[in-house]
Amino acid sequence: MAGNREFFNRRLHSLLGVIPVGLFLVQHLVVNHFATGGEESFNNAAHFMESLPFRIFLETFVIYLPLLFHAIYGLYIAFTAKNNTSRFGFFRNWMFMLQRVTGVITLVFVAWHVWETRVAAAFGAEVNFQMMENILSNPFMFWFYIIGVISAIFHFANGLWSFLVSWGITVSPRSQVISTYVTIGIFIALSIVGVRALTAFI
To answer: Which residues are listed as membrane-spanning (predicted)?
Structure first.
C-alpha cells in the first residue's frame, strides 16, 4: 500500500512539474521577455496578465497549490535520494544530482521572488518594469536572479526528460537519447529568453 502511494505521489509530482508548473514557467519567461521591447512593452504584457478573469482562482489552483505539492514532495525526494555520481559518474547520474540541487535552489528563489512581487503587490505595490528595475539594480540581486532563473529552467528541462521516461513516452534507449538533446535545446533556448529578460531591466 505504501509502495503504491509513493508511486502515485512520484507520478503526480512529475506531472505537476510539467503541467501546470512548467507551462507557467515558460509563460512567465515569455511575459518577462517583453522587457526587451522597453518599459511600456513589459508593463502592457504584465497588465494583461493581471487583468485575466478569475486570476486569483487561477493563481491559487493552477499555480500555487500544484507548486506547493511539487516543492514539498520534491524536497522529500531530494533529501532521501541516493546520488551515484561518486561511484559511477555517468551523465544521467550527474543530471539526477543536479535535478535535486537545482530544485532546492529554485524553491529558495521562487519563495523570495513571490515575496518581493506578489506579497508586495498584496500590500499595494505595483508589479511593473520599475519594480524589477529597482530589484535588479542591486548587483547581488541581479546575480541571485540569474542563478535562480537558470536553476528553474534546468530543473524544468531536465525534469521534462524524467517525465517522458516515467510516463512511458520515451522507453527505448534511442528515444531517451533524442529526448536528452531536445531537453538540452529547451534549456538553452529558455535560458537565453530568461537572461535577456533580466538584462533588459538594467
So the answer is: 12-34, 54-76, 97-115, 142-165, 177-198
Q: Are 170 and 108 in contact (CB under 8 A)?
A: no
pLDDT value of residue 89: 59
Q: For the chain, what is the total number of helices (H) and then of strands (E)?
A: 10, 0
* 47 annotated ligand binder: no
Domains, the chain, ordered by start = 2-200 (1.20.1300.10)
Q: With cut-offs at 50, 70 and 90, classify the pLDDT of residue 58.
A: confident
Q: 146 is written with which cell numbers?
A: 540569474
Task: Please state, in angstroms and rounded to a whole number, the distance separating the CA atoms of residues 24 and 8.
Answer: 23
Q: Which pLDDT does position 124 carry in this prediction?
A: 87
- DSSP H or E stretch at residue 21: helix 21-33
Set of cell numbers at residue 201: 531591466
Give the pLDDT confidence of 90-100 residue by residue, as tens digits: 888 899 999 99
**Residue 147, number of CB atoms within 10 A of its CB:** 15
Residues 156, 201: contact at Cβ < 8 Å? no
Residue 113 marked in a binding site: yes
